[in-house]
Design a protein that fits this description.
The complex is a heterodimer. By secondary structure, chain A is mostly helical. Chain A is 83% helix and 0% strand. Chain A has helices at residues 9-42, 45-76, 80-115, 126-148, 151-181, 186-218, 227-235. In chain B, strand 4 (77-85) and strand 5 (90-91) form a beta hairpin. The chains are: A mainly alpha, B alpha/beta.
């Protein structure tokens, strides 16, 4: 009795292709986000265009992966671990595409801030950079956990989201203070709010991707799970 | 592998009062010297469909045939252990129990539709006549009930006196189901009931099984995993005469506990 690989080799290849493609999409989105953050921080408007172009590629990947997944389902009628993998990848594709959209929003906000020449009247918030780096780190961690199918690492990423949410609230408070003190900063501040919100959403989507890893490996759906439920889900023997 | 009946029972409030219909305890079966079943234990729940799956030679049909003592028909076969039928707790395998009594309570439907070489009516009436039912009106009534129960009445009510072999494959299979239903069984055994049928006939049999389980407990052997996933509430995976895993179908097909089970249902056995 030989186990491990499917009797139908084509099925193995299709699943491997799916895995490779989602990781490639993850890499694309990660670099897209990196560019968007740099763009906002350093006013590199060329990068803004690159981020928008990259997003078109990400959208195309979403469609292609969606097609592959539907094909797999109808032809292979996947069960157990194969089914969980396909479902998990399907969810992760959506979250990655959303991260791409948020990165694009950050790049567009950068363009507005600098084109409208409101740079001097935009509050420099150190926390934006910190928060952006945290979100990027969450995305990297989630993709890494996905590549290694590591539920414990995934659970760590999920826990990090609280920090990103908290940072968003902090940034919001600071911006409100700025706006109240000097109404001329309102335009720039609002653009910064969109950026902060986009970063917070990226944290959420990265958390979702981490959750997908746990679903793939453990079969546990940890969306909306309490910290205790999460701990229990990843502590079960595989 | 040792799986005790206690470990396998699944009392679960969410599954609205599971009741045992039968219990297999430490059942071993020998074709002569060959041990085809190795100390199996598993529960069969009332008004639920339990599927037996596994590769060829795993013993699933052998297990199924213990339930109605068909193995008795051949010399050299030997049972060890017990199959207890509830609620009266009789051991089906007890030598003192007449197999005919068992077969009145436990009906079987085979892979190849096998109507008797007689009329539609007589096919269904056979078991009833064996039991001593003679009154014409009552016989006719019981036959109609059984045919309705098998979702066949409307198609055959005007041809009850025709030869059963005139029916299509799917109809013949439903006739065999009606024949088994006629004696009011508590448990129905299905041995790959749709392998010989086309997809439409298969779907109608599966639909029928879903209806039947409201009134009768069902044990089905199938090599079609999607069928097991569609039709059953509980699934038992067997390999080389052993029970590898038993559990709610949803769990077996989404997150089985044993790698062997997962390999089998995902097509990694080979």
């Amino acid at each position: 009795m030989v186990t491990g690989e499917h009797t139908i080799k084509q099925y193995d290849q299709e699943l491997e292709s799916l895995r490779a493609r989602i990781l490639a999409m993850g890499g694309l989105v990660e670099s897209q986000l990196r560019m968007a953050i740099d763009c906002f921080e350093h006013a590199d408007l060329r990068k803004a265009d690159e981020v928008v172009e990259a997003d078109e590629q990400v959208d195309a990947e979403e469609l292609e992966l969606g097609r592959l997944i539907v094909n797999l389902i109808v032809r292979r009628q996947p069960a157990a671990n194969d089914l969980r993998l396909i479902m998990g990848v399907s969810r992760a594709v959506t979250d990655l595409e959303r991260i791409g959209d948020e990165a694009t929003k950050i790049a567009r906000a950068a363009r507005w801030v600098h084109e409208k020449d409101v740079v001097t009247r935009t509050p420099r918030i150190r926390d934006i950079r910190v928060s952006a780096e945290a979100a990027l780190s969450m995305l990297r961690g989630a993709l890494d956990a996905f590549a290694r199918l590591d539920p414990l690492a995934a659970a760590e990423i999920i826990r990090e989201d609280k920090g990103v949410d908290e940072q968003f609230r902090l940034i919001l408070r600071q911006l409100i203070t700025f706006m109240m003190e000097d109404p001329r900063t309102i335009t720039g501040s609002l653009d910064t709010v969109w950026v902060a919100k986009a970063i917070e959403r990226i944290g959420d989507h990265s958390k979702n991707i981490a959750g997908d890893v746990i679903f793939i490996v453990q079969g546990e759906d940890v969306r909306h799970a309490t910290p205790e439920q999460l701990a229990r889900a990843v502590s079960q023997p595989i | 592998m040792d799986v005790s009946i206690e470990a396998l029972e699944q009392p679960n409030a969410a599954q609205d009062a599971l009741v045992l219909k039968a219990e297999v305890r430490e059942l071993s079966f020998f074709y002569g010297d060959f041990e085809a079943l190795k100390a199996l234990s598993l529960p069969i729940y009332e008004d639920r469909v339990t599927a037996l799956i596994g590769p060829s030679g795993c013993g699933k049909s052998t297990l199924l045939r213990c339930f109605n003592r068909i193995h008795d028909l051949y010399p050299g076969n030997r049972y060890q252990g017990s199959i207890t039928l509830h609620p009266d707790r009789i051991d089906i395998l007890d030598r003192a129990i007449d197999p005919m009594d068992v077969r009145m309570r436990i009906g079987m439907v085979f892979q190849k539709p096998s109507p008797f070489p007689t009329t539609v009516f007589e096919n269904v009436a056979y078991g009833l006549r064996l039991r001593g039912l003679r009154a014409k009106a009552m016989l006719a009534d019981s036959v109609e009930q059984a045919l309705r129960g098998a979702a066949l009445w409307d198609e055959v009510k005007d041809r009850l006196n025709q030869d059963a072999s005139n029916l299509s494959g799917g109809q013949q299979q439903r006739l065999c189901i009606a024949r088994a239903l006629a004696t009011g069984p508590e448990l129905m055994l299905f041995d790959e009931p749709t392998s010989a049928l086309d997809p439409i006939a298969t779907a109608s049999i599966e639909e029928l099984i879903d209806e039947l389980k409201k009134r009768v407990s069902i044990l089905i052997v199938t090599h079609n995993m999607q069928q097991a996933a569609r039709c059953s509430d509980y699934t038992a995976f067997m390999y080389l005469g052993e029970l590898i895993e038993f559990g709610p179908t949803e769990q077996i097909f989404l997150k089985p506990s044993k790698k062997q089970t997962e390999d089998y249902i995902t097509g990694r056995f080979g």
